[in-house]
Amino acid sequence: MPDEAAAWRYLEGMVHRIFREYGYGELRTPIFEHTELFQRGIGETTDIVEKEMFTFTDRGERSITLRPEGTASIVRAYLEHNLAAAGGVAKLYYYGPMFRCEAPQAGRFRQFSQFGVEALGSSDPRVDAEVIALAVNIYRRLGISDLEININSIGCPTCRPLYRERLLEHLRPHVAEMCPNCQRRLERNPLRLLDCKNENCKRLTDNIPLITETLCSDCGGHFQQLMQYLDGIGVRYRINPRLVRGFDYYTKTVFEVVAGDLGAQNALCGGGRYDGLIEECGGPPTPGIGFAAGMERLMMVLKSRNLLPQVKEKPQLYLAPLGMEARQALFPIMIQLREAGWIVETDLLGRSLKAQLKSADKLGVPLVGVLGEDELRNGQILIRHMDTSQQELVPITDLVAILKKKFQPSAEFHE
Ligand code: HAM
């Protein structure tokens, strides 16, 4: 709805600006991709690929999928457009609708909007810290600073198999007690159990070995450095060894920003490092890290905390013509004023002066220009200042001067 859309526009503007301040360039990817990209990128054993994608066969018998997230598409575009050739780190951001066939509930929708970043080409833990700081900064700038930042490292293809074995040893004896989902996925992806919301499965993982104890020296060192960088910039975080996230592409760092007042769907944003994904998608070994954040959830927090500014643009002038001649005379004037950037409204129903003034009042317009037969004959217009109810008769040609006196004109439009 228009009021809500105005608030979204304001938020979107903030987000775009902050991303650009951090040196990220926008990349717009298509709404759908070949299904295979998500199957390979996100992983066959993830909830998203197993049961949440909107997948169709198109007229050419190709399987296509509405994008459930942005990372795989960004990697595809990075490879297709050979962005590596520019050298350095490719810092890309995106914004737009994503689609997941989840059970809708408060804060969880089948079409939702994400903004996110991906930094491709560097394995330096400074990039991890920068990406986390960027996410936190967005929320801070919007007035939300009491968020919980969960971080973890889920290792790499060297050390994760070790953890996987330890986890399996611990969990195999309890297969019968698990939910059907976890039973099915246990051998293929036991880490998913740490994420399961089923009470039984949660209990089974109460005393599991922690992944942070089995990290190889590379992953352990990387994680330590990340924490030092975060400490150095005053970002407070919680190490959450159970945080595994629902994508197979992650390596090393994973993180989530959580809002206490959001209820069950409390993750405002989530992300992590994916040093193997670009290779998985057919490119050369290239590290990457990023995050994505949900707009609807952000909106919910801002709304409930009264942090949304009044962003509805009110008209600056309401033109109230009385009679056919006045309507004809005012119409081109109104169009010219609008072309010059002023926000001008008028009556389009041929209503009485009283009804027009009522409309202007309802719209919250500070200036009303009334044009009746007498005024028209004299080339004048009656200006009514709605706040003081004062009126003045001025030449029609003075309209712009009056508007300029009342409002700070933006150079871009009015000069
Ligand atoms: P994700 O955790 O699936 O990560 O989604 C990120 C955020 O999108 C969530 O924290 C949440 O705010 C929002 N979100 C997800 N699903 C829904 C939904 N059904 N309804 C409303 N909001 C939702 C990713 O998508 C990864 N691609 C993040 C990433 C980028 N990792 C590395 N780079």
Describe the structure in your own words:
By secondary structure, this protein is of the alpha+beta class. It folds into two domains: 2-156 and 216-305, Bira Bifunctional Protein, Domain 2 (BirA Bifunctional Protein, domain 2, 2-Layer Sandwich); 317-406, 3-Layer(aba) Sandwich (Rossmann fold), CATH 3.40.50.800. The chain is built from 16 helices and 16 strands. The chain has helices at 2-21, 35-42, 47-52, 71-80, 125-141, 160-171, 180-185, 199-204, 217-232, 277-280, 295-304, 324-339, 353-363, 373-377, 399-406, 411-414, and strands at residues 25-26, 32-34, 55-57, 63-66, 90-99, 111-120, 148-153, 238-239, 251-258, 267-273, 288-294, 317-321, 344-346, 367-371, 380-385, 390-395. The strands form three sheets. Strands 1-5-6-11-10-9-7-8 form an eight-stranded mixed beta sheet, sandwiched between helices. A five-stranded mixed beta sheet has the order 13-12-14-15-16, sandwiched between helices. The radius of gyration is 28 Å and the shape is elongated. The protein starts with a helix and ends with a helix. Residues 411-415 have low confidence and may be disordered. The structure holds histidyl-adenosine monophosphate. Histidyl-adenosine monophosphate (HAM) is lined by residues 69-71, 100, 102, 108-109, 112, 114, 116, 118, 267-272, 290-294, 296-297. It catalyses: tRNA(His) + L-histidine + ATP = L-histidyl-tRNA(His) + AMP + diphosphate + H(+). Homodimer. One of its GO terms (biological process) is histidyl-tRNA aminoacylation. It is an enzyme of class 6 (ligase). Keywords: Aminoacyl-tRNA synthetase, ATP-binding, Cytoplasm, Ligase, Nucleotide-binding, Protein biosynthesis.
